[in-house]
């Protein structure tokens, strides 16, 4: 009769040894910090209500930080934010963010 080898579970100490070392977090240089601070922002104001709009549009408004009529939010000008603004452009007013700084 042949005996079959059974697979044993690794002990916690063995798992700890085989774990991958965490990646080092790189610090931003002063020029990167300055670029992040001076990046353009947009000031958004909600003009119309949530009622009667599609759920995707509601999600975009919430993602932009708008919850009530006449609420205002300042967001970074990124392609993803621009896409959300395009979906709800009939519900909001967009202004340059430097107005509120």
Give me the strand/helix succession. Answer: HHEHEHE
Distance between the termini: 82 Å
The mean pLDDT is 80
What is the overall number of helices? 4
Rg calc: 25 Å
Fourth CATH level, the homologous superfamily of the domain at 49-101: Ribosomal protein L30/L7
Total strands: the figure is: 3
CATH architecture assignment of the domain at 49-101: 2-Layer Sandwich
* Principal-axis shape: elongated
- What is the percentage of strand-forming residues? 15-25%
Main sheet properties: 3 strands, antiparallel
How would you write the strand order of the largest sheet?
A: 2-1-3
Under CATH at level 1, the class of the domain at 49-101 stands as Alpha Beta
Structural class: alpha+beta
Helix content: 25-40%
CATH topology-level fold name of the domain at 49-101 = Ribosomal Protein L30, Chain: A
Low-pLDDT stretches: none
Q: What can you tell me about this protein's structure?
A:
With 101 residues, the chain is α+β, with helices and mostly antiparallel strands. The chain has a domain at 49-101: Ribosomal protein L30/L7 (Ribosomal Protein L30, Chain: A, 2-Layer Sandwich), CATH 3.30.1390. The chain is 33% helix and 16% strand. It is built from four helices and three strands. It has a three-stranded antiparallel beta sheet, with no helix packed on it. The longest helix is centred in the middle third of the chain and has 9 residues, at 55-63. It is elongated and about 75 Å long. The protein starts with 11 loop residues before the first helix and ends in a 5-residue tail after the last strand. The mean pLDDT is 80.
